[in-house]
Write a structure and sequence with these properties.
Layout: E1 26-32, E2 37-42, H1 45-50, E3 57-63, H2 68-78, H3 82-89, E4 96-99, E5 104-113, E6 117-126, E7 130-135, H4 144-152, H5 162-197, H6 201-233, H7 241-307, H8 322-343
Parallel strand pairs: 3-7
Antiparallel strand pairs: 1-2, 1-3, 4-5, 5-6, 6-7
Helix pairs in contact: 2-3, 5-6, 5-7, 6-7, 7-8
Length: 347
């Protein structure tokens, strides 16, 4: 639950508005170049900074933006603007990119999919030779594949600079979007089969919940393309021409994700219409049968009602063939109506 207890506070006021979990802050320092690699976890910022070397690329991952004192201390050490720090600890931020004189910052959502879709805010700050990532406490992590590449010296990440690491972290987050979309796609197929074959009320509830998840995901991923576009338009010296090519590819990925989300959104809307149409058709079939039965028996009921009147002067009542004649008349009317309905193809 996002909290807004700091309404009216001055700009730059640090207030964590996410869910308090009681998790301890963990700081992971990874330093590397093409030949050397260092990785260690710390629970104190001072211990972490003692291991920082000038001649290596540094990635500092801070898990626990709920500790605003720590975020403020890092901001002072690296001269991060108070408005940026405020965005980091306010976890309801819209994904965005900002270009400052001595650093770049990207804020986006890391989407996980368990029983349902949920997100965690991720803030990436790029300096000349350092990337600092801020995550919410106790959340998921899409960066295991990046850590593995760094440890095993696979790919380009050990050979290129901090800007490529900045790209690689964003790319890992966007790849998780595809994983979430794949699980949503499986659910869509399952519900679609249920609705077409045997629609039930439970299917409608599942469909409604899934539609909410797709709308939620759309809200998170739509701004990512704009964020990457703003990054590509910036003339920052921190992003090299070589790395810009990779960001263009990342922009294409974000476009594909948006197209897929829009496709699922339209498909779910169509499935909702199919469900309502199927139920309406079933009701129409029931009403059709009841109407035909009523149309057949109403004339018969009229005849029975006429001859059920207790008048003395009704010649058919004293006829020896009156009872049989009444049955013949009623059956003739019924069969005539059935023949008429079949001829009209209503039966």
């Amino acid at each position: 639950m996002v909290k807004y207890q700091n309404i009216g506070a001055p700009p730059g006021t640090l207030f964590y508005n996410g869910e308090q979990t009681g998790e301890k802050v963990k700081i992971t320092l990874i330093e590397f170049n093409e030949k050397e690699f260092f990785e260690q976890e710390f629970f104190d910022l001072s211990d972490c900074l003692e291991h920082v070397k000038d001649n290596m690329i540094k990635w500092i991952n801070v898990e626990g933006v709920h500790n605003t004192d720590l975020v403020e201390k890092i901001g002072k050490l690296y001269n991060i603007h108070p408005l940026t720090l405020e965005d980091i600890v306010h976890v309801d931020q819209r994904p965005k990119f900002e270009d400052y004189d001595h650093y770049l910052v990207s804020i986006l959502k890391m989407i996980m999919y368990g029983k349902e879709v949920h997100s965690e805010q991720l803030s990436l700050v790029l300096f000349k030779d350092t990337v600092i990532s801020f995550q919410e406490p106790g959340g998921g992590d899409a960066f295991d594949i990046i850590r593995t590449r760094l440890r095993l010296a696979k790919g380009r990440v050990r050979r290129l600079g901090a800007d490529y690491l900045f790209y690689a972290l964003m790319d890992a987050v966007v790849d998780w979007y595809f994983n979430a979309l794949e699980k949503i796609g499986d659910k869509v197929e399952h519900i679609e089969e249920e609705i077409i074959n045997q629609p039930k009320r439970e299917s409608l509830i599942q469909l409604y919940n899934l539609k909410r998840e797709v709308i939620y995901m759309r809200k998170q991923v739509w701004p990512v393309r704009d964020m990457i576009s703003n990054l590509l338009r910036s003339d920052s010296e921190f992003i090299t021409a070589n790395t810009q090519l990779f960001f263009r590819d990342l922009q294409d990925h974000s476009t594909r994700i948006i197209d897929t989300v829009e496709t699922y959104r339209d498909l779910l809307g169509g499935m909702m219409d199919i469900y309502l149409s199927t139920n309406a058709n079933k009701m129409n079939e029931v009403m059709k049968v009841l109407t035909i039965m009523s149309s057949i028996f109403i004339p018969v009921t009229f005849i029975a009602g006429v001859y059920g009147m207790n008048f003395d002067y009704m010649p058919e009542l004293k006829s020896p063939y009156g009872y049989i004649g009444a049955w013949i008349l009623m059956l003739s009317v019924m069969l005539g109506l059935v023949f008429f309905f079949k001829r009209k193809k209503w039966l």
